[in-house]
Each structure stands twice: as C-alpha cells, then as structure tokens.
Amino acid sequence: MVTSGDPVAAFTTAAAEHRRCIWLDGGGARDWTRRRSIIAWLDPDDVSISYDAARREVTRHAGGRATVVGDDPFAVLEAELAAGRPTDQWFGYFGYASRPDLPATPDPHLPDAVWMRPSHIRGYDHPDVESSLLSHRIFRDVGASAARGKSRRDMTKDSTENPPAGYHQAFEAVQEHLHAGNSYEVNLTHRIGVPSAATPAAAYLRLRELNPAPYAGFLQHDVAGAEAWLLSSSPERYALVTEDRTLETKPIKGTTARGATQEEDDAARARLATDPKFRAENLMIVDLLRNDLAMVCEVGSVEVPSLMDVESYASVHQLVSTVRGRLRHDVSTVGALRALFPAGSMTGAPKLRTMQIIEEVETTPRGAYAGAFGWVSGDGRADLGVVIRSLLTTGDGTWTLGTGGGITVKSDVAEEYAETRWKAERLLAALTRGR
C-alpha cells in the first residue's frame, strides 16, 4: 500500500519514536529496482531476532524479553516465516559471519545478524527526479578527492598516503596464495573506525545526499545487548527472488572514480569497460555465481542476460553483470539465500578456499560488511543488497565501515590501497560534514 507524504519526514519521525525501525530507501533506485521507499517500525510486542556468532546464539526479542532460540540465523528466520502468514515481511541483514559452517570472525561489538517483523509498514513512491538531480551534481565536489576522474595509477601517484604495514603484509600474503594456485582472486578488505557525534538518522540523511544508491537504507535495532544501526548506500544486488521464483543476482567487480569533467568522465568509463584486469575479475565472479545458482536452480535455467555493463553512480563507475535462474521447487527462498551466502563478489574464487585465506590474512572482522541487507516475505519473495558502502554503529559514538577490493596476481599494492580509500571517502564525509 502506497502512502502519500514525504518519506524523509516519515523516516525522521519513525527513527525518533521507535527503537526498532527500518527505511528501505527508493530515492536512489535504478530501472532494475522499484523507485519506492518502505518505512516500517515495530511495536514493543513485535518480534525481532539477533545473532551472536561468537556464542552461536540466535536471540528472539519481543515484549521486553530476550530468548535464545537457535544457533543459525538462516534456520531461525526460515522457521519464523513458516510459522507466520504469507503476508508477513521481515527486514534486516545477515552479516559476513552469519553462516556457522563457514570461516569468518564474529563482530565483537554489533550483532552478526538482525531481522525484524514490523506490524507497521508504509510505502512511498518517489517521483523520477532523483536521476536528474544526480546528473547535476556528478561533477560537483561533495567530498571526493581531487583525483576523481584519473586512472587508478594516477590516483596512486598523487596520493601522499602509503599503504600501512598491515595492509601491505596482507596483500603480500594474498599474492603468495594466488601464485600457489590456492585462489584466482581474493577480495581483501579492512575495517575503518571513526568517532562522530552525528546521530544515526542525521548521518543517514547526509549519506543518501552524498551517495544515492539502489540499495540505500537505514536499520535501527535499539535493543539492550543487541544494539545495531546500519546505514547503507549500496549499489549491488545480492539476490532478488520474484513471485515466479526467478532468482537474480548482479555482482559488481571493477570500480573506477568518476571524472571531474565530462571528457574525463567518458574516458574513465571507457577504461573501466576495456581494462583486462577488471574484465578478468568480473568474469571470475560471474563463473562463481553461475555455479552457486546452479546448486539451487532448475537444470538449464541459469543464464547471464548481461555481462560487464558499466553503471555510473555519484562517485564511481562500476562493472556489473547479471546472473539469473529459476529456483528448484525443493529449495526455499531462505535456503537459496543461505546457499549463495556470502556474495561471491565479496570473497573471490573458489569461495570456500578463498574465505579461508581471507580469515588468515585480514586482521579486522567484517561484521555486517560483505553480508546482505533487505527484506524477505512469507510468500517467498525477497530482495537484498550486498552490504558495501555502509556505516555501522552501536550508538556509542564510534562508527565502523568496511572497504576493500579484488586482488589478482596483476594487482599493485599502492593502487589497491588507494582504491579502498576513495571508496570510503563519501561514507566518512557523511559523518564529518554537517547538513
């Protein structure tokens, strides 16, 4: 049901008045997503669940009570959906450590997963004006570095910040594994922590202004012992499951900064589309996801309707492919989400061995970063984005964000580290600049 009114005003009210709420923000939608916002909130007796991967405990929160109900957030969410109605909708995230059977360091501060079933859900249509507004501000400096539009190598030459010893050491360890044939590509990431007095709601409104995206959104779970705020400006689809059981994912591999002028921007876009390294990275992840979908889809239904399209956002161009299939009748929606998890674009290939390498070389936990965020319905439909370009906090004034990129044998350590820094710039600007 679509509600008239201003979604920003509705969000501000919901965040101020309800300890558990969510905004799936359609303001930055593309032609492959609906330009509609969903704002929802929970009454005190409504149910939410949280997951602590260190203790392997899923806790059910309702009516001021917290009860441990399982050890796998996917299994608990599936049970809740089975016990509910087809019209029920759950909103939340699976963090990187949400599968107990895979190697991943738990988050020491935030829940490794949060899902909420609100009794109040409102929809808001966005007029198709965001794209025109975005086109006017593409070339305006809103916190990106002066190096926008230059090649990765040029940005590295201009940078005065050398890769820190920890990143350099992890990069070299990854190269050893790549040359030994243990992986074809490793998505190497690290976490940045920053203090900020910005409230989560104010920071999100700033983030959506700086970096509108198809999977933008805000989650607030202000529950004692399971506090979590997730502010997302992600451009990447993790999984869409439609009414006819079509499963679609849109992996991103290959990113370059926007140009400062139209000429530089066109050149940056052309470089991304033709760069052999980016194309090889993207193709490896497409092959990985074809294999992942083949495990849960009907034989012969998996296809790649688009390969290496360039999508442009406020600060970056990205190389995006689409992989699609038809779910088998014996595979549930949550079962499919679990089988694909985590996103291959955030691990590398092959997935399990590469996750083992990631666990060995990364010195900070990923938390919600590299997970999936969105909604799942009791009728089997779902739509989730990959948790990238996102901010996290427990509400204590400390914020974390993850950043990284795909490493191959042809990668350069300085270039890769520079990319992680400019990917994080707009997120940091949302915390450091007032509205």
UniProtKB/TrEMBL annotation:
InterPro entries named in the record? ADC_synthase (IPR005801), Anth_synth_I-like (IPR019999), Chorismate_C (IPR015890)
User: Which residues lie within the region annotated Disordered?
Assistant: 145-165
List where the protein spans the membrane. none
What is the name listed in the Swiss-Prot or TrEMBL entry for this protein?
Chorismate-utilising enzyme C-terminal domain-containing protein
**Organism name:** Nocardioides panacisoli
Q: Mind telling me which Pfam families this protein's record contains? A: Chorismate_bind (PF00425)
Record domain Chorismate-utilising enzyme C-terminal: where: 165-423
